[in-house]
Design a protein that fits this description.
The structure is a single chain. With 115 residues, this protein is an alpha+beta fold. Helix content is 63%, strand content 12%. The chain contains 5 helices and 3 strands, in the order ααβαββαα. A 3-stranded antiparallel beta sheet has the order 1-3-2. A hairpin with a 2-residue loop joins strand 2 and strand 3. The longest helix is centred in the last third of the chain and has 30 residues. The protein starts with 5 loop residues before the first helix and ends with a helix.
Length: 115
């Protein structure tokens, strides 16, 4: 925990793919294998993103058999930076809902133009 730095955590959370991993893990509230988290990146890029998250102290990775299991270090992050993780995950969820509403609204608008 002593090695976790705010700037490294913020850098790790700033990337959309890494934020997607964090949000997925926050929703599961437990462990998830890398294969359960569907990232739209190559395997090597995904490995890089997991390494950044792990080295920043955002996630913990352990092997369970042949699967690499990931979990958020929520307790550690909350102790160091109260409410940071909850705020980031909440903001990401709000943005996703807003973006989905905009996308579906654009589709409805185009459909009405075709009538």
């Amino acid at each position: 925990m002593e090695e976790i730095r705010l700037e490294a955590v913020l850098h790790a959370l700033a990337d959309p793919a890494r934020l997607e991993v964090v949000c997925f893990l926050a929703r599961t509230e437990g462990e998830a294998a890398c294969s359960e988290i569907d990232l739209a990146v190559s395997k090597s890029t995904g490995t890089h993103h997991y390494r950044v998250l792990r080295e920043a102290g955002v996630i913990r990775q352990v092997y369970r058999g042949t699967a690499k299991m990931n979990s958020l270090r929520k307790a550690d992050l909350d102790a160091l930076f109260p409410r940071l993780l909850d705020s980031v995950v909440s903001a990401a969820a709000k943005r996703l809902r807003r973006d989905q509403g905009t996308t579906s609204g654009a589709r409805r608008s185009r459909a009405h133009q075709g009538e």
